[in-house]
Amino acid sequence: MAKPGKKKKVLFVLEIIVLLLFIGGLYVYGQISSRLDKIEQPELKKEKIVVNQEAPKMTGYKTYVLFGIDTRGEGSQYSAQNSDTMIIVSVNNDTKEVRMVSVYRDTLLNVGDDTYTKANAAYALGGPEQAITMLNTNLDLDISDYATADFSALVEVVDDLGGLDIPLSYAEIEHMNNYCVETSKLTGKDYTPIEKPEPKPEDEEAIVGTYHLNGVQATSYCRIRYTASLDMGRTERQRRVLGMLFDKAKIAGLSSIFKIMDDVFPMVTTSLSKQDILGLIPTLIGYKFTDSTGFPQKFKFSNIKGSIIVPTDLENNVVELHKFLYDDQDYTPSSEVVARSNKILEIVGGESKLDDAAKTTTQDTDTTNANDTFVWSGDNTSGSTDNSGDYDYDNDYDNGGYDGGYDNGGGGDYDNSGDDGSYDNGGDDTGSDTGGGDYDGGDDTGGDETGGDDGFSDDSAADSGASSEEQ
Q: Which ranges are annotated Low complexity under compositional bias (predicted)?
């Protein structure tokens, strides 16, 4: 039988431990709370955000959207701030699973006011409110919260977490090195070019090795769009990098987390309150990324004036989106989505007028001073037409935009289990499906992760006429 004095000593020690843990928790809370003041939190005009009346209300889930924009200073031809990165994040609070869907920037959608153009223009036209509304009304979603950053923030996060080990193809090394020149100049961060293997491999899209990338290099990797899988590969790279960063942050020390907050939070704009963000901290610890994909899954290309991505059709793509994000097998598209689906195909002259491959361009020959706009507006009364249909199009659309020959083959998905989550982006599969390289939480040397598109926002002119140089 323990002596009374011994029991008191044990209780005293336990009380000290609990007190220290409490004080430590208060310290950490205070450090995080003070750093959250560095995030820009402008008032989101929620009355401007539209949700389709027939859109389903998903219980047990919270949906966010991450926007990546390109801010290169006043006077820059990129300063219109299109959201070339749009990642929908679905959080399942019951299973603790997180899924991501990238919306391809060149997807023809209704961006507001019955104007059909590239989806990335909505942010430049009306800020986060219009961009969120664009996603909600075209995809039957109910998003009300967002976060926005430019690619400088990604450079900082990667460096603060010690870099990333990423499998690269010969083509990716070449294009990444090219992008590093500008990324380094814009961010003031250094890098060392990766030496390309010799001799040049016959298959330039095949993985040649795993390389340790710093912030400039990893961000440049996320911006590549000149390999075979175009925007589908670019967005796949972005999701892969975000998944790897999420995993590294979960095991990082407090000093690293505090440094990320100090370096990155001033570059972030969000609708989330300080309490909202503090409430998300358990998500970082206890949740996991399980899968990711791109939208639309089934698409073709229209080369009316340059190259745009056309969902074939929007209605069925949205059905698949809801299955992926919410495991909703009973979802029926709203009348708004059905109407927009029909209008998109009407605008491009029907699916028979679409191409399986995008127009050819390269990083060296891409147009540099053309407006990157394709616009059809329901109230356009100028009466002009072209040979693609009885609709008016903006004549300033550039001739570039894509590396040739992509066959609608899909983006490989982020998948912790290591399964190859690639899909076929449908249509008539006339070439090779190049998108199968999944991030599996380890050394991903399999799969042909060859995709590529511009990074965290290169195509920065809205269809209001601002000039855009596609890098």
A: 359-373, 462-471
For residue 293, with 0-12 CB atoms within 10 Å meaning exposed, 13-18 middle and 19 or more buried, which class applies?
buried
For residue 6, tell me if it sits in a domain.
no
CB 164 within 8 A of CB 222: no
Domain membership flag for residue 441: no
Strands 97-103 vs 288-295: parallel, antiparallel or unpaired: parallel
pTM of the model: 0.75
Span 264-297, pLDDT tens digits: 989 999 999 888 887 777 666 778 888 999 999 9
Count how many domains the chain has: 1
User: What CATH number corresponds to the domain at position 213?
Assistant: 3.40.630.190
Burial class (CB in 10 A: 0-12, 13-18, 19+), 69: buried
Query: CA 148, 150, 153: angle at the middle one, nearest 5?
Result: 100
Does 357 fall in a domain? yes
Tell me the angle at which helices 254-264 and 4-36 cross, rounded to the nearest 10 degrees.
20
Q: Can you tell me the distance from the alpha carbon of 61 to that of 335, in angstroms, rounded to the nearest whole number?
A: 23
